[in-house]
Amino acid sequence: AAIGDGRPGVRLVVSDNGQGFDAGAQTAEGVGLIGMRERVASLSGSLVLTSSADQGTTVTVELPIDPPAAA
Questions:
Q1: Closest listed residue to residue 23, CA positions, set 67, 47, 71, 57
Q2: b or e along 11-48 (b: 16 or more beta carbons within 10 Å of the residue's beta carbon)?
């Protein structure tokens, strides 16, 4: 599989049709999204979160996969 820039990788998309929320709002509670972003970044990946009121939420993670070294 290829990710957005054509490199080999994997894309994970998780969506729901729930209440949604203001994805740009800063909250002082929890570290869920912060932790997810940090873990994805540590693997040279990207995380995109889209959400809006009454439209649900989608989290898209793309992680590159290094091809095996030639023998």
A1: 57
A2: eeeeeeeeebeeeeeeeeeeeeeeeebeebeeeebbbe
User: CB-based contacts of 13: which residues, under 8 Å, 6+ apart?
Assistant: 58, 59, 60, 61
Q: Please determine, for residue 28, whether its predicted confidence score (pLDDT) is greater than 60.
A: no
Does pTM surpass 0.85?
A: no
Beta strand 46-52 with 56-64: parallel, antiparallel or unpaired? Answer: antiparallel
Give pLDDT tens digits for 30-54.
678 889 999 999 999 999 999 888 8
Does residue 7 contact residue 64 with C-beta atoms inside 8 Å?
Answer: yes
Written as one letter, the residue type at 1 is: A
The residue to which tokens 């540590």 are assigned: 42
